[in-house]
Amino acid sequence: MRVPAARGGRTPHALRLVPPCRGARQPHRPVDDRGESVAHVPRLRVGVVFGGRSGEHEVSLASAASVIAALERRGHTVVPIGIARDGRWVVGGDPLRALAAEARVALPSDDAAGEVKKALADRAEAVDSGATASLARTEPAGGLPAELRHLDVIVVMLHGPYGEDGTIQGLFELADLPYVGAGVLASAVGMDKATMKAVFQAHGLPVVEHLVVTRHEWRTAPDRLARRVAETIGFPCFVKPSNLGSSVGISHVRDAGALPKALDEAARHGQKLLVERAVRGREIEVSVLGNDEPVTSLPGEITYPGDFYDYATKYTEGRARLTVPAPIPPETSRRIRELAIAAYRAIDCAGMARVDFFLDGDRILVNEINTIPGFTATSGYARMWEASGLGYGELLERLIELALERHREKGSWQ
């Protein structure tokens, strides 16, 4: 397995061999249908957790569908574990198909979730609730389903609150279960944009000028808040919930007249809101992988029609384009990758993350870090690694190795 070398290597795009899990058995393994070698990782019993209570439920299903298929191709025993929108566990049978059928009913009619439909097509053959009831059983919210108790590792494919924010990571920590990705603290900081930006600023990282406000402030003193936004941030600006991703609840506000509607929309999704100055720059992304010695992919550039990278643009096939490597000068690429590592370390991240930037002339601004980025084979995180020499299946194997390594290290000092 090969990944780009850590910073400080001979060249920024150098590759190095990554050893298999220490102490792991090395059975014979085939080559999967993407032509990737699967000879260095033992067969494992891998739980994949998906769905969840957030507004990014459908995005999570798409990520899980790709992950499950890739892990099955590579010979692992995959245990799908769903979480319904109301928090119930969905286990046994085919939870992904059951939740996918529900999601197909709820998907927007404008096909804003086209990629989700495509990724779930093979699983969601039946939409009728009677047809899907027999596919899986449900258990009450809370607790720990029996399926979780006999796993080698868990791949968390939950996006948004109640999954990407440290809550389920805390549950797995209490149960002493290895899981892929960031721990409780990094997940919580990475989910809350206001806290994330405060941490970035404390570490000297450049961020977009912003204002943190609350739903209570907006509802009790709207005129005063509107004046504060106009005086400190100005227009145009962006208003967004502090704790959601995938551009859910975001509004592009061109003038003061549009501000109330934008604040109302953001307030529907959480009590903490973020108002950011609009930056007319290029959007650059970098994938990060690792624990104590994180490495970066080649940067990619997102281009799209319209004012901003909204939900419909992100999840409708053909609306946005990711160019890897980003057409930027080598020195700019090097600096962006350094800042990606700095942001990753600032929140004490582990496993993986995607770090997003604005390139505003000569200024590089850290926008945000996403600790569980979209994870289909065509998502930005995977595509940037593919362009950097690390295929989708190998990427999953490496993430599992990192999860097991971190779990062993925790056990050595607890």
Offer a concise description of the structure.
By secondary structure, this protein is of the alpha+beta class. 35% of the residues lie in helices and 21% in strands.
Write the layout of secondary structure elements.
Elements: E1 2-4, E2 15-17, E3 45-51, H1 57-73, E4 77-83, E5 89-91, H2 95-106, H3 114-120, H4 129-132, E6 137-139, E7 153-156, H5 167-174, H6 184-191, H7 193-202, E8 210-214, H8 215-220, H9 222-232, E9 237-241, E10 251-253, H10 259-267, E11 272-277, E12 282-290, E13 295-296, E14 300-303, H11 311-315, E15 321-323, H12 330-346, E16 351-360, E17 363-370, H13 380-387, H14 392-413
Parallel strand pairs: 3-4, 3-7
Antiparallel strand pairs: 1-2, 4-5, 5-6, 8-11, 9-10, 9-11, 12-13, 12-14, 12-16, 14-15, 16-17
Helix pairs in contact: 1-2, 1-3
For the largest beta-sheet, the strand count, sense and barrel status come to:
6 strands, antiparallel
Indicate the proportion of strand residues: 15-25%
Number of strands: 17
Proportion of residues in helical segments: 25-40%
CATH topology of the largest domain: Rossmann fold
Number of domains: 3
Q: Look at the structure and give the CATH class of the largest domain.
A: Alpha Beta
What is the number of helices? 14
Structural summary, described in words:
- With 414 residues, the chain is α+β, with helices and mostly antiparallel strands.
- The chain has three domains: 43-179, 3-Layer(aba) Sandwich (Rossmann fold); 191-204 and 281-387, D-amino Acid Aminotransferase, Chain A, domain 1 (2-Layer Sandwich); 210-277, Dna Ligase, domain 1 (2-Layer Sandwich), CATH 3.30.1490.
- The chain contains 14 helices and 17 strands.
- Strands 12, 13, 14, 15, 16 and 17 form a six-stranded antiparallel sheet that branches.
- Strand 4 (77-83) and strand 5 (89-91) form a beta hairpin.
- The longest helix is centred in the last third of the chain and has 22 residues, at 392-413.
- The two termini are 31 Å apart.
- Residues 1-39, 105-113 and 123-135 have low confidence and may be disordered.
